[in-house]
Amino acid sequence: MESDRRLRKSGQSSGGLKYKLCQDALCLTAFGTGSNKATVGQLLSGLGLWGRTTVFGLIPAGQATASGAYKDDVGVVITY
Which residues span the domain enclosing 3? Predict the structure, then answer.
């Protein structure tokens, strides 16, 4: 795993499910944080068009955790 992203149950402050965010369906190119961050550019300057980027997720198998609803917050920076 390139980053330590974790999905957690409500109120859970440690543990959880490790996961990563990727730029492709096979997760060969991961998005990361800090020095491992990746950028996706949209060249739409001045055109007034919508830009769309698909983000894929991967939760590796073999993680021992209870069933239930898990969540995480993901920050996105848009430079305009």
Answer: 1-80
**Which residue has 């992203």 as its token pair?**
5
pTM recorded for the entire structure: 0.69
Q: What is the pLDDT along the chain (80 residues), one digit of tens a residue?
A: 446 789 999 888 888 999 988 888 998 887 765 555 656 655 555 566 666 778 899 999 999 888 899 999 887 776 66
Side chain identity, residue 21: L
Query: What's the structural domain count of the chain?
Result: 1
Whole-angstrom Cα distance, residue 50 to residue 56?
20
**Beta bridge partners of residue 5, listed in sequence order:** 19
Going edge to edge, which strands form the sheet with 56-58? 5-7, 17-22, 56-58
